[in-house]
Amino acid sequence: MRFVIIGSGRVGLRTARVLRDEGHEVTLVEIDDDRAERAREADFQVVEGDGSREEVLERAGVVDADALGALTSDLNVNFAACSIAKHHGLRTVLRVDEDYREEVYQQYADQVDEVVYPERLGAIGAKNALLGGSVRAIADIAQNLQVVLMTVTDDSPMHGYSIEEVALPGQARVLAFGKADRPMGIPVTDDSLETGDRLAVLADFEVLGEVRQLIVGENSVAAAAGGA
Amino acid sequence: MVTAYVMVKASTGDVDGLKHSMLNLHDGVESVSIVAGDVDFIVKTSVDDTAQVKEIAASIHEMSGIEDTQTYIAMD
């Protein structure tokens, strides 16, 4: 797909890299000379100029692009860029600068398909790193539904059993499984659970405690509930 | 008559509640719009004198959930 990213700072440039790594075509729009130069050195196509101006976005190819990410630290620029992109029929993503604005733009901004607040994602990562332990939240799917990565410990009551034998509560599913030090994959029912193995589980908040006791064991760090 | 515009920055996502509170603050508050960008609301006031503009702006500033206000008085 073709993407236009406004802003080649920490958020914009990293997003552009990830998209390029996955084989997509990315054009960056950057107003600052030094940042534009840095993005060019990283072999990106860069249009220098103000991302809130239509002619600049046209030079960046907004007319034929699939989606636009307005990822600068300036909310006025980001909103203007999304408005122009929406006019051209693109999918739009807006970066907000403060957490309370996430819900305001989700609710009111018709020009914006998705809102991102990068600090929230950073905070979830930092929280997981600080808590350590055998349970980490990966994603909030819905208000009461979370994907959690759990590591089997010596205390786990299911230690030595196969995935098929683990009787999880009704509102929980094993999504992925990985042996210790091996990549995660789709679970096979006769995989057996040993210390250090990891399970990604989709679970309702109500049964998270129960799932944790089954997979991790009684003395696990209670770290799952709530995002950031 | 004095027309003035108050730019308001919030500190909470409950913009509907704040909008409602500002509309009911004073008879001189003519409209409250939720806007995109670095401020969250533009409040239009129409009052008898500048003292009342100051009064309204101060009341908005004191509301909980409001971080900052900036007032512009129309000259035409």
Number of strands of chain A: 10
Q: Would you tell me the structural class of the helices and strands of chain B?
A: alpha+beta
Oligomer: heterodimer
Task: Identify the most extensive interface between protein chains.
Answer: A-B, 14 and 10 residues
Question: Number of DSSP helices of chain A?
Answer: 7
Fraction of residues in H or I helices of chain A: 25-40%
Computed over alpha carbons, the radius of gyration of chain B is 11 Å
Whole-number mean pLDDT of chain A: 89
Low-pLDDT runs of 5+ residues of chain A are 220-228
Major sheet of chain A: order of its strands? 3-2-1-4-5-6
What kind of sheet is the major sheet of chain B?
4 strands, antiparallel
- Identify the strand order in the major beta sheet of chain B: 2-3-1-4
The level of helicity of chain B is 25-40%
Provide structural commentary:
The complex is a heterodimer of chains A (228) and B (76). Chain A has 228 residues and is α/β, with parallel strands linked by helices. Chain A is 33% helix and 25% strand. Chain A has 2 domains: 2-116, Rossmann fold (3-Layer(aba) Sandwich); 130-215, 2-Layer Sandwich (Alpha-Beta Plaits), CATH 3.30.70.1450. In chain A, the strands form 2 sheets. In chain A, strands 3-2-1-4-5-6 form a 6-stranded parallel β-sheet, with helices on both faces. In chain A, strands 7-8-10-9 form a 4-stranded antiparallel β-sheet. Chain A is elongated and about 65 Å long. Chain B has one domain (2-73): Alpha-Beta Plaits, CATH 3.30.70. Chain B has 2 helices and 4 strands, in the order E-H-E-E-H-E. In chain B, strand 2 (29-34) and strand 3 (41-47) form a beta hairpin. The mean pLDDT of chain B is 96. Chains A and B meet through helix 4 and helix 5 of A and loops of B.
